[in-house]
Amino acid sequence: MLIKKILPAFIVLALAVYFIASYRGPESGVSTNIDRNNLEKYWKTKEVSVAENQFLLGKKDASITSRFRIRSFGLTLKVKTTPGAIGTINFATSKSYDASNFRGYSVLINNSDYSTGLPQKTGSLSKIRNNFIRMAEDNEWFDLNISVLENHISVSVNGKLISEYVEPPNAKRLENYTGIVLSRSFISLRKISEQGEIIIGEMKIKPFTEDIARVTPTVKIDSLQDVIDSLNQREFPLIDFHVHLKGGLTMDQAQMHAKENGFCYGVAANCGLKFPVTNDSTLNSYLQSIQKEPVFKAMQCEGREWVTLFSPAAVAGFDYIFTDAMTWSDHKGRRMRLWMPDETFVDNDQQFMDMLVGKIEAVMEGEPVDIYVNPTFLPAQLASRYDELWTNERMARVVSVLQRNQVALEINARYKIPSIAFIRKAKEAGVKFTFGTNNTKNDDLNRMEYCLKVIREVHLTQEDIFMPKTKAERKILKKGLPAAITG
Ligand SMILES: [Zn+2]
Question: Ligand 1 centroid to 345 CA: how many Å?
């Protein structure tokens, strides 16, 4: 009887002693520089050339794998890539790499330009918290920091937090990804592309062998979060391309909201006549002020006058630009802002709708924008008759102008527009989509509920989602600005 009680406890104790005693890594709680002198002592290398204190991974599958197993650690790297290089830093992973049965988490190294190479960029916690924002360029040193403290993972690039994740108990994973779970295991840096080189200029590790308290997830674990998590595991780009720092919302608050929920953000400045960003000089200083932030840098082109205020070269500093068709002058010359009931004049419903469609066509044809936002918005007087007034013929005209001019269509999370019927038609025509909230305050950022519903109902895939162009391919540079104001 006594043996039955004591024996299991004794086995647990013996195993614990064995594991603690078996730790053969660098000293716990201390940051140890990994250099040529101690590299082989703590790490197993494959196809890595060591020169001075730099480690170079040139061939595909070149790797540096720890000889020790650890759960909690801080890993700091100074890294440089050359074009085409892609690498992963895996942790909670197996000693030998097994692509068909991968275990653990991966942090990505990929500095390719937008719309080239992998869409996920450096700092991405792959399939869990995907990052689509470029934070580093090829041929430039950058700092990469990975911290795993019990169940709390954070990844920073150049001092900016890129990915953060708190692993909940019994984390839900899709069938093929059940191995993405934290454990006391190996750390491995691996080059996964044929092309390019990854150079490690500095590598420091701070292991923690003692117990560390678990962190409670701050975000609600509900059915919506399950949808977001499963889309992330499918590497679906969950990006809110249309966020404003308005009503007191700060850059840090916006990023925190995005990270907690598992999105990326594009932060847009309102640029136009009588706006704070109103010429090249205010545009450039704005861009300079947010250059290092881990968000897409977006320009909202305001009114119709913006085309006369900025130069294409300055506008091309933004990752993408967008506009809506909510501000225009009607046939009687009345300048209208459709979201302001007292500035909108509807003399005749059908005539108004035809005028609106004509304005959308003129703007999307004439202005070199990447995205049509707040699309198909109707003023308060007409909004309740959306499905009736957006006839097949009107929808077809708008879809056609977007398709001809390669303008992406925003699926607006706040206004819940366009309708599912409209989105279906646009998808059939090959139009790309973005998601956008267009928040007005610091408390109306949502969890993209309407966009998630659309993804499910219209079966949107990764290929349906817009991504910014490479610097050289930006539309503003290729198309230029119209000679005169449209609309
Ligand atoms: Zn906006």
Answer: 22
CB contact set of 208 (below 8 Å; sequence gap of 6+) = 28, 29, 70, 71, 72, 73, 149
Strand stretches in 331-430, DSSP E: 335-337, 371-372, 408-412
* Cα 464 to averaged position of ligand 1 atoms, centre (Å): 22
Torsion sign (Cα): 182, 131, 122, 102: positive
**Residue 219 burial by CB count (10 A; 0-12/13-18/19+): exposed, middle or buried?**
middle
Cα-trace Rg, the chain: 26
pTM over 0.90: yes
- C-alpha 269 to ligand 1 mean position (Å): 8
Instruction: Say yes or no to pLDDT of 5 above 80.
Output: no
| Cα–Cα dist 60/46, whole Å | 10
Please tell me the predicted confidence (pLDDT) of residue 295: 98
Residues 420-439: tens digit of each pLDDT:
999 999 999 999 999 999 99
**244: CA distance to ligand 1 center in Å?**
7
CA 369/CA 312 separation, integer angstroms: 11
Amino acid at 50: V
pLDDT tens digit sequence for 141-184: 999 999 999 999 999 999 999 999 999 999 999 999 999 999 99
* Structural domains in the chain plus CATH codes: 27-208 (2.60.120.560), 236-479 (3.20.20.140)
Predicted confidence (pLDDT) per residue in 109-123, tens digit: 999 999 999 999 999
194 CA to centre of ligand 1 in angstroms: 42
Beta strands in 405-462 (DSSP E): 408-412, 433-436
Cβ–Cβ < 8 Å for 80, 199: yes
Which chain residues have CB less than 5 Å from ligand 1, an ion? 300, 438
How large is the angle between the packed helices 420-428 and 449-458, nearest 10 degrees?
Answer: 50
CA–CA distance, 141 with 139 (Å, rounded to integer): 7
pLDDT at 17 > cutoff 60: no
Residue 2 banded pLDDT, cuts 50, 70, 90: low
Query: Which token pair is 203?
Result: 């590598």
Which pLDDT score is estimated for 100?
Answer: 83
